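Na+/H+ antiporter NhaC structure dump, as promised
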Amino acid sequence: MSEEKTPSFIVSIIPVIAIGIFLGMSIFVYDAEPHMALFLGATVAVIVALTQGYSWKSIEDGITEAIKTAIPALIIMLIIGMIIGIWIASGVVPVLIYVSFDFLIPALFLPAALLFCGVVAIVTGSSWTTAGTAGVACIAVGEGMGVPVEMIAGAVVSGSFFGDKLSPLSDSTNLTPAIVGVELYDHIKHMLYTTLPAFVIGLLFFFVLGFSVTDGQSTNEEVQELQGLLGETFVFSPWLILPPLAVVTMILFKMPAIPSLIVGVILGSVMYVTVQGASMTEMLETLYRGFSIETGSETMDNILSQGGMSDMYTIISLAMIALGFGGVMNKSGMLHSIVMGMMRFVHSTGNLVSTALASGIVINIFSANQYLAVIIPGQMFKEPFEKKNLHQKNLSRAMEGSGTLTAPLIPWNSSGMFMLSVLSVSPAAFAPYAIICWLVPIIVAIYGYFNITMVAGEEERGN
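structure tokens r here:
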């Protein structure tokens, strides 16, 4: 039996090159989902590991260990799917949209859209759901007010991804700290140092931009039409504030994410049955398949038809395949070899943080998927951050800054393609205005070079 050995740098990058080729063919040639490309890349990684003397049992252990670390996050994804569907069906999300529209005026529309989408994303925990619901409505309303659509899309994407990063309900915000072993609330608190400055700058940016592109004389007919449809479709009640209020309260008291989310599902289900008068069958179907309705308005149908546990299956399967690929790469030592090859050029904390950021962006470009852009750098740079005596939440912050936030700016990335599909605006057009998405990585890099909020490794809690 051959002995295991650490692969060389040249051997180690073979699976990375292979997965880049497979993903390129899948996206640009066959217009297919990235799942099979990732699976084939993982297969190449297995073959390379076998040639280096690793047994199938060892490789299988690497796969299962990697997936095991993310099981809580995968469970949360399923619960998030149920929350999205039931909170829309029960009227929780519609009433938030209805009330928020009262504050939209032309000159202040862009900063209001940024703030509105940020709040919805925090409540729902999903940048995609926010863009596909509140974002779609903002596009329709903003166009009616005469605001350039690429600017609206930039505000929507910025707000959606800002709120997603601060929400304990977010799948990526749960997955990222799980990859490197950081507690969820520590991860979110540490991100505040970079996301809040970017958000304040973004508000000022859109405030100035809004006054420069509107004259403030547009009507609110589109807003009134959407509000009218919401009022006709749902029964509004003060009780609808209870589910998000309960979840937010539990989050503020640092209750575990899964019980907090389950409470949100239960209360949303109760609201659907009692306030909206749904049957138990409709409630159970909505939890699994999501909510769907035809109002006669394409915009409103896009806003309301969302969610369900089954809606998360694609993301979960993709995450499992990507985790399996990372597990093989990690167990076989190939990730270690790649990192050591890169680390020859890293001599400072700033360079280390910037290299981690660059890795996430590059993987986003070549893998076309934000989950892979978070998972692989998380596994690659965990050891280098430990050697620099840096707490792993510095790494999880960098992973979010590059892996998640830059994803919608890349046209062929899954996030970029999703934004194009729901907003009908190309990432190339809205990227200059999606200020938070590209400003956060810059702030993270600056903090690395100037040692700002870079927590030492031995510190369990704190800043």
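Residues 72-312 form one domain.
lmk if u need the other ones
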